[in-house]
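Why does residue order matter? Because the sequence determines the fold. Keep that principle in mind as you read this record.
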Amino acid sequence: MSNRLQNSWELVKASAKILEQDKGLLVFPLLSVLASVLLTVSFAVPFFVSDSLRAAFDGENATWLGAGVSFAFYLCQYFIIFFANAALVGATLIRLRGGTPTFSAGLAVASRHIGALFVYSLISATVGMVLRSLAERAGFIGRIIVSLIGAAWSIATFLVVPVLVSEELGPVDAISRSMALLKKSWGEQVVAGAGIGLVFNWLLLLSVLLFAGGIWLTAGVFNSPIATLPVVGLLLMWVLGLSLLRATLSGIFAAALYRFATEGTVGEAGSAFKPELIQSAFSPTVRTKL
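Structure:
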C-alpha cells in the first residue's frame, strides 16, 4: 500500500508540473462541469413539471419514453465529458510536443473530431445503459460481475480520446487501438486507473473528516444549524476544486501515456514523466518492450 501511495503521489506531481506550465488546462474540466449542470437542469425541469414524464420512470411501470430520455441524458453527458477531455488532451499533447497550447487550440482539436466523439459517446452511452440495466436486475454476485465488466470497459477505453484526437480512426477502431497500446506496452492489469484517483480519494476523505469536525464545532459553538452553512459551502467548493484538479491531472496523464506508448517518449516538456514512472502505473501480467 505504501509503495502504491508513493507511486500515485509521484504521478500527481509529474502531472502537476505540466499543469504549472499551462494553468489554463483547468478551464476544460470546468467547462465540462458547467455544461453538465446546465444539462441536468434542462432534463430535470420537464421531469418535475410533467406528471406523464415522471410516470415514465415509475419503477415497474416505466415506459420506453423513460428509457429514451435516460439514454438521451447519458448520450449528452458522455459527449460533454469526451469533448472537454479531447480539448484537454489535445492541448496537453501540444505542450508535450514542444508547442504552446491555447484555449482556442484545445477547442479546435476537439472540434475537428466532433463527429467521432459523438459516435464514441453513442457507444459509451449504450454500454452504460446496458450495464446499468443488468446491474438493476442482477443479484449481489451479478452486480459484482457487472462492475468488473464496467472496469474492463474503462481499461479498454483508457486511451480512446488521445487516439481519436491524434489519429484518423473511427471510434470502433480507436477502441481497438487503445486496447492494443495498453496490451503492447504494459500488459492488461491497469493499476494507474486508481493511481491519481487513489491520492485524491485520500484527500477527499481527509477533507470531509476535517470539515465534518468544523461543522460539528460550529454547530456546538453557535447552537444553530444555520451557522454551519458557510462551512458546508466551503466544503462543496473544496470538493469541486479537488474534482477539477483530479480531472485535469488525469487528462494530462492520459496524454502522456499515449505519447509514450506511440513514440517511446513523453518529450522535453514532459520530462517529469520518467519512463519507469509511467510503467510503474501498471501492474503487467506480461510486459513487452515498445
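Residues 229-263 form the longest helix (35 residues).
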